[in-house]
């Protein structure tokens, strides 16, 4: 079935390309659809695999393409040329090298190829969004799509809670993946409203995000999303105070106050009345296994190989990881340790640089370009990425398709606005004077 979807996606590409060429004034719709597609989880993701290993215990399970890939490629091929290059390609190249080199020590090199392929899909997404989202209409279309995606996930969460699920994962493989995805998108939508947007889809998306966080029971998402909202509001007011912002901030505080009790109820149900700040022994065991693996393999064991090596070479057993399938089939709950174990210290540093540099540049841009049309959304993207840098100490979700794709959206929004500001400060290139043909017939003959 997945191979059928693969060919259907390939066949749909000429149709998408033709529609974008025939209806350029509907380009906003394409960005709305793209934003919504990024929220399709494992249960409803329309991915086709030319090579798929559903039984592989890693963060990537094959070489796949999806309608989002086809749409992103069509957007790249039909857009108007823009002066200058997007930033961040350098750090992307460094991380791509780390992933590629990790195939050499890998026990199963093809599984590492899966990780390289997924990152190539991320770069296509970055190029498609960053190339045009300096345009306010396309940027709003993309965020409207994010709002739609959150509404779909909230619908699944409500249905799951009504059927007795304690930690509702929506359509994702795990509730923590949905939680990290939600905290990033929540800050993007809130930043858009603070910039003056009146989109009802974005407002509904924020409500949906609060429902998801309350029903998911992820402590990291609850704490960091709440902290992110407060930090973003304070920084936004530091940029500029407006009556609209004060109204939105008041509504935001009220919404957090309403959502907080439901979140605490989910946490209480999850932990059975025990302390919700207790660190599980399983996480410590995972970290012991990852550190031992990294110490024995300074260049890594290969991208997408952690679970295989941890079980096969006895790292999980020696670290005390329980024998339950759910524990033995997951990577370490720390993205940085996972990167170190799989791609070595070089890969870990490249991964950190890829996240930290856009976050710092986004925050710097937001405060040094206070009159930039997209500065408020760049601020939201910068805060979201900064919080993700913190959250990665407790989750590996940054290596999954959905979370990595949304982080690429943040980088693209930041990068696109930086390039637009550069172009606005450059004088337009002077047209070259036409070269007149030399009329040799009018010259006097040389005797």
From TrEMBL:
<feature type="transmembrane region" description="Helical">
    <location>
        <begin position="141"/>
        <end position="160"/>
    </location>
</feature>
<feature type="transmembrane region" description="Helical">
    <location>
        <begin position="247"/>
        <end position="267"/>
    </location>
</feature>
<feature type="region of interest" description="Disordered">
    <location>
        <begin position="423"/>
        <end position="447"/>
    </location>
</feature>
<feature type="transmembrane region" description="Helical">
    <location>
        <begin position="206"/>
        <end position="235"/>
    </location>
</feature>
<dbReference type="Pfam" id="PF04932">
    <property type="entry name" value="Wzy_C"/>
</dbReference>
<feature type="transmembrane region" description="Helical">
    <location>
        <begin position="110"/>
        <end position="129"/>
    </location>
</feature>
<dbReference type="InterPro" id="IPR051533">
    <property type="entry name" value="WaaL-like"/>
</dbReference>
<keyword id="KW-0472">Membrane</keyword>
<feature type="transmembrane region" description="Helical">
    <location>
        <begin position="396"/>
        <end position="416"/>
    </location>
</feature>
<feature type="transmembrane region" description="Helical">
    <location>
        <begin position="345"/>
        <end position="367"/>
    </location>
</feature>
<keyword id="KW-0812">Transmembrane</keyword>
<feature type="transmembrane region" description="Helical">
    <location>
        <begin position="86"/>
        <end position="104"/>
    </location>
</feature>
<protein>
    <recommendedName>
        <fullName>O-antigen ligase-related domain-containing protein</fullName>
    </recommendedName>
</protein>
<feature type="transmembrane region" description="Helical">
    <location>
        <begin position="172"/>
        <end position="194"/>
    </location>
</feature>
<feature type="domain" description="O-antigen ligase-related">
    <location>
        <begin position="205"/>
        <end position="352"/>
    </location>
</feature>
<dbReference type="InterPro" id="IPR007016">
    <property type="entry name" value="O-antigen_ligase-rel_domated"/>
</dbReference>
<keyword id="KW-1133">Transmembrane helix</keyword>
């Amino acid at each position: 079935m997945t191979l059928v979807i693969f060919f259907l996606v390939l066949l749909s590409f000429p149709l998408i390309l033709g529609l974008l060429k025939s209806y350029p004034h509907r380009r906003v719709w394409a960005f709305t659809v793209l934003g919504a597609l990024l929220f399709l989880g494992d249960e409803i993701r329309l991915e086709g695999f030319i090579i798929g290993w559903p039984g592989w215990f890693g963060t990537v399970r094959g070489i796949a393409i999806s309608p989002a890939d086809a749409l992103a490629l069509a957007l790249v091929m039909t857009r108007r040329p823009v002066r200058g290059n997007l930033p961040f390609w350098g750090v992307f190249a460094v991380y791509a090298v780390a992933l590629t080199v990790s195939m050499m020590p890998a026990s199963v090199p093809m599984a590492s190829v899966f990780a390289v392929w997924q990152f190539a899909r991320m770069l296509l997404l970055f190029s498609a969004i960053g190339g045009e989202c300096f345009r306010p209409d396309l940027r709003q279309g993309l965020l409207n799509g994010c709002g739609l995606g959150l509404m779909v996930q909230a619908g699944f969460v409500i249905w799951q809670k009504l059927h007795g699920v304690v930690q509702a994962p929506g359509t994702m493989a795990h509730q923590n993946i949905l939680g990290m995805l939600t905290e990033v998108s929540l800050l993007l939508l809130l930043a858009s409203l603070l910039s003056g947007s009146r989109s009802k889809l974005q407002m509904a998306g924020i409500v949906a995000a609060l429902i998801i966080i309350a029903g998911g029971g992820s402590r990291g998402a609850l704490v960091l999303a709440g902290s992110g909202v407060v930090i973003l509001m304070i920084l936004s007011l530091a940029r500029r105070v407006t009556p609209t912002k004060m109204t939105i901030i008041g509504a935001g505080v009220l919404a957090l106050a309403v959502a907080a009790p439901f979140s605490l109820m989910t946490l209480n149900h999850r932990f059975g009345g025990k302390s919700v700040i207790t660190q599980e022994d399983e996480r410590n065991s995972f970290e012991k296994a990852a550190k031992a693996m990294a110490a024995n393999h300074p260049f890594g064991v290969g991208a997408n190989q952690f679970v295989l090596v941890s079980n096969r070479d006895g790292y999980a057993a020696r670290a005390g990881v329980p024998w339950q399938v759910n524990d033995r089939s997951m990577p370490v709950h720390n993205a940085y340790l996972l990167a170190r174990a799989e791609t070595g210290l070089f890969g870990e540093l490249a991964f950190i640089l890829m996240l930290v540099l856009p976050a710092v540049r986004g925050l710097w841009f937001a405060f040094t370009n206070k009159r930039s049309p997209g500065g408020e959304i760049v601020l939201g993207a910068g805060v979201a990425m900064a919080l993700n840098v913190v959250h990665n100490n407790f989750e590996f979700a940054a290596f999954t398709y959905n979370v990595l794709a949304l982080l690429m959206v943040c980088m693209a929004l930041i990068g696109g606005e930086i390039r637009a500001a550069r172009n606005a400060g450059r004088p337009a290139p002077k047209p070259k004077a036409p070269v007149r043909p030399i009329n040799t017939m009018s010259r006097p003959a040389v005797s």
